[in-house]
Amino acid sequence: MPPNAQVTVRSPAKINLGLSVGPPRPDGFHPLATVYQAVALYDDVTATLRDDAAITVEVVGDFAVDVPTDDSNLAVRAARMLQVEFDVEEGVDLSIRKTIPVAGGMAGGSTDAAATLVACNRLWGLGLSQPELERIAAELGSDVPFCLVGHTALGRGRGEQVTEVMSRGTFHWVFAIAEGGLSTPAVFKELDRLRPLRRVEAPEVRPELLSALLSGKPAALAVALSNDMQAAALSLRPELAATLQFGLDQGALAAMISGSGPTCLFLAADSRRAVDLAVDLAESGLCRMVRQAEGPVPGARILPAPANR
Ligand code: ATP
């Protein structure tokens, strides 16, 4: 294979440390104010150059069976968007190694799209800058720009307008991955059903969340976490309340639904306690799978050789 004919990009899952949801706009989207953090659970997307214009995808790894391999795959959509907008004559074979839960509220599909933008930008020699990639990412989905940027960031609009926020140190997270997924639009619909008559305020990020991140103290972060989607996710999947409570009983500093769910996330005081909690959750039988990851970590990035032969 000629040099530069294959690129592998590693891209992280996201969590929402604060997720404030405003009333639906006329176009149906909900305005958000969110603080994202990228965590060290990754999908790897390997892109291999094709001489013809075809775009193909295969998915391997933990959650492969839940992911479409037709044109609805977000990685394929990302490659197609670049190909059309920049009149690219070549195609690409995409191979996604998935470790991020699918439909788990952790932006797995969005991060594959972000990884594909970075990979195809290199593979096809497009030379697009980071701001140009972020503009294209925003057209693909609300979480895609953050997956490019990574670290810890404020998300406005539908979540696609990202600005980095200061965060000190490393936080230790544990994830209880539930059986089955939850559709993000279904959770927004449930949220609107639960609060139809309430005056819903414009979305806001809590100042105590930003100061907790600056302090780097897990105990301060634990009391500043919030998620407006949690009540709606629990309404659709009431059994998740037992998982959250179990984590708190085992010493988690905080327990919360991740994004639109159904993944439950727990903040541990340190890495040793995170391991203990992960073991307890795995033995509890309350979830399909348990993962542990620290954050923040960078966004989508090209892996050095030898991954990129
Ligand atoms: P978010 O947190 O951004 O709302 P999510 O983590 O809940 O998203 P995803 O894992 O992105 O959800 O998957 C949502 C749906 O998107 C899946 O049910 C799947 O059918 C579809 N999908 C399309 N492409 C992908 C992909 N590359 N990886 C995962 N899911 C994909």
Automatic annotation (TrEMBL):
Catalytic activity: 4-CDP-2-C-methyl-D-erythritol + ATP = 4-CDP-2-C-methyl-D-erythritol 2-phosphate + ADP + H(+)
UniProt cross-references to Gene3D superfamilies, sorted A to Z: 3.30.230.10, GHMP kinase, C-terminal domain
UniProt-recorded Gene Ontology molecular function terms: 4-(cytidine 5'-diphospho)-2-C-methyl-D-erythritol kinase activity; ATP binding
InterPro entries found in the cross-reference section: GHMP_kinase_C_dom, GHMP_kinase_C_sf, GHMP_kinase_N_dom, IspE, Ribosomal_Su5_D2-typ_SF, Ribsml_uS5_D2-typ_fold_subgr
Its EC number(s): 2.7.1.148
GHMP kinase N-terminal domain boundaries: 73-150
Pfam families, per the entry: GHMP_kinases_C, GHMP_kinases_N
Active site per database record: 14, 143
Protein name: 4-diphosphocytidyl-2-C-methyl-D-erythritol kinase
Species whose genome carries this gene: Kribbella voronezhensis
Taxonomic placement: Bacteria, Bacillati, Actinomycetota, Actinomycetes, Propionibacteriales
